[in-house]
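Escalated from tier 1: zinc ion holo job.
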Amino acid sequence: MTLGLPKLATTLLGTQAADILGRRAFRSDVRVVALHDVPDARRLDELLRHLGRHYRVLRQSEVLGAVAGSAGTDRPAVWLTFDDGHPSVFEVALPLLQEHGMTATAFVCPSVIGTCEPLWFQLVLGCAAEGLDWTWRDHRLDLDVDAVIRGLKGLPDDQRRQECDQLADHAARHGCPAIELRQATLSQLRGWTDAGNTIGNHSWDHPLLSRCDDRSVEHQLRTTDAWLREHGVWSGSFAYPDGAWNPVAEGLLTDLGVSTALGFDHSTVRRRSNPLRLSRLMLDADADLHRARAITSGWHSRVFGAVRRQSSDRTMP
Ligand SMILES: [Zn+2]
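Tier 2 regenerated the structure:
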């Protein structure tokens, strides 16, 4: 069996020796880890055990201090975050976090909480997984879903919505089950915060804010902020959907009292960074320990992060 070069490099960067070196070399950087759903409890358990042994896992309330450099540097600091509010975060990750004595922040889109409606990219991925016969600009959905999603992300947001509505209509006409997806409920969010975890704003329904007009940006942020406050789960944190930074959004966040805003640019956070432009490391919750070590140590983002950022909207100024 041959390994691709990036995979081989990741394996080398994730050895125990490289892990020790990386934790030492980048000790003062804060690692904000961006996870999504939790398909494999055993793998997440392994990750949390590793973090518990070698890192200081922060509560959200400790993040500003750690970034400012006021906290101790005996062990590198980590902030765990989960995006998009998958039910598995509340059903699988929550008991594991409690077992390890850790907390995390879940970034949610209130438009789908308590519903069976997929977010737009979940609809696209679900239809592709179901093998729905649909072609978008020469890309067959079932053969190249990545190209379809990339293309949709490049459109102005109102146009992207029209295309997704057409896909949803097409899927409904063909009885495709992907038009329904079980989402987290408000009581799950409450159970999460009751256990000491926090909930953050991830926009109302997950558009790329860099593709929205100013009015839509304001609507996305304000409606979510109001919803989180109304339901008693507001915590003053925000994660840009897909890491797409937007200057109007940043101005509004300050108005809304948000103190930490996160990108998705696969980088560690240097001390004294702007708390409204914090980088995050991209990690799958079911990654094996080699890959997890390569990423949390800081090596992976240094070797591959620049390449990834070049090919997307994920660079923050
Ligand atoms: Zn997201």
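The chain has a mean pLDDT of 94.
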